[in-house]
Amino acid sequence: MRPKTIGTKSAYADVGGAPVTGTATTEPGQVDGRGWGERHPGTVLVLLLAVLGIVAFAALMLGRYIIQPETVVAVILSSVLPIEETWSSTAASAVVNVRIPRIIAGLLVGAGLAISGASFQGMFRNPLVSSQILGVAAGAGFGAAIGILLFDSLVVVQILSFAFGLLAVGMAYGLSRVRSSTPILMLVLSGIVIASLFSALTSMVKYVADPMNKMPAIVFWLLGSLNHVSTPDLLVLGPIIAVSVLGLLAVRWRINVLTMGDEEARALGVNTERLKVIIILLATIITAAAVCMSGIIGWIGLVIPHMGRMLVGPDNRYLLPVSVLLGGAFLIAVDTVARTAAPAEIPIGILTAIIGAPIFALLLRRNNPGW
After folding, report:
1. How many helices (H) and strands (E) does the chain have?
2. Residue 230 in contact with residue 104, Cβ under 8 Å?
3. Domain that holds residue 226
4. What is the CATH number of the domain that holds 246?
5. Distance CA 18, CA 202 (A)
6. Number of domains in the chain
7. Which helix (H) or strand (E) holds 161?
8. Dihedral sign computed on CA atoms, order 352, 354, 357, 360
9. Among residues 73, 108, 158, 283, which one has the fewest Cβ atoms lying within 10 Å of its Cβ?
10. Which residue in 59, 68, 26, 77 sits closest to 328, CA to CA?
11. Could you give phi then psi for residue 127, rounded to 5 degrees?
């Protein structure tokens, strides 16, 4: 029996009374054509929040030095309650000084990269773009490479990384401007050009670097790791990422309108150029700050939004919060594997590629490739 058409709706669901296109179908006996997650996005968010908490608590216990769960709870509560110390100073130091900062960093970086990728996929109306599409990661990587080559200060390396990440996106945006507008295709092509330029410059820096000291440090940074994250890093970069993530969450319903196309969005009263600038600026700040904190970590901004769509559908009002929780939980889990699976810590960028590529291939095989 042929499925019945039950009405029309946008590929991104209803967006405040906006005109809608396309058709939704359902089999006889179904309420509509949506999955369970699309009908209950609030429940999905609560479940993902619980998963994030479980993953974070497991990360506090696991490592080369295994800590019992009751000891972890006692160490955490001792900071606010007068609890008698029955645990070793090694356990307390591992939880407070090492694992908690890494978990917070993993949450910020994973959530930031995931929501940036989801926002860009909605803005570009393309499921194959990621948070690095405009060259921010390539620019930030070049800045870090220059800092490592010329200076011995981690702070200088992070400042140069952040500055060159912003510069790369600024160059891509300026190159894409055509008659006071920013066509999506021109923006994508400009990002590819700028990313290629900074990648070549980074290769030049590696070519002239000292192969005994500077070169390994540059390569390890570019592969990504949370090993060097400190509390001062979190105090400086954490609020930057958190505020930018909140900014993207605040405009998530407007991204729904933007996915209809510039002409339709303008007809609905949305200033598309200003909205593009806001999304690009916030996503760029997040990605540049994430590279400063952890180096270049790929695949999160590409794979996590697709996993979110499998759970709650393409409506950005729910997709972006789901991407935040999924991205944070995913990177915390990967970081835990990176520091426990081998005698020497594995760079996170290697693991995200090893895990992300098969997951993305599976998603492509299980779902129709269309947008």
Report:
1. 16, 2
2. no
3. 45-79+87-365
4. 1.10.3470.10
5. 46
6. 1
7. helix 154-176
8. negative
9. 73
10. 59
11. -80, 0
User: Is residue 331 situated within a structural domain?
Assistant: yes
Burial class (CB in 10 A: 0-12, 13-18, 19+), 328: buried
φ/ψ of residue 8, rounded to 5: -115, 145
3-class secondary-structure state, position 236: helix
> How much is the CA Rg of the chain, to the nearest whole Å?
22
Q: 134-147: per-residue pLDDT in tens?
A: 999 999 999 999 99
Residue 362 confidence (pLDDT) above 90? no
Q: What is the pLDDT of residues 151-175, one digit of tens each?
A: 988 899 999 999 999 999 999 998 9
Contact 5, 282 (CB under 8 A): no
Two tokens at 297? 């970590």
| Pure H helices in 209-271 | 214-223, 231-250, 252-258, 262-267
| CA 340 vs CA 57, 219, 228: distances in Å | 15, 21, 16
Q: What angle do CA 81, 82, 83 make, to 5 degrees?
A: 95
269: left (phi over 0), alpha (psi -120 to 50) or beta: left
Residue 39 lies in a domain: no
**Which residues make Cβ contacts (< 8 Å) with residue 169, sequence separation at least 6?**
134, 135, 136, 139, 191, 194, 280, 284
- Has residue 24 got a pLDDT over 70? no
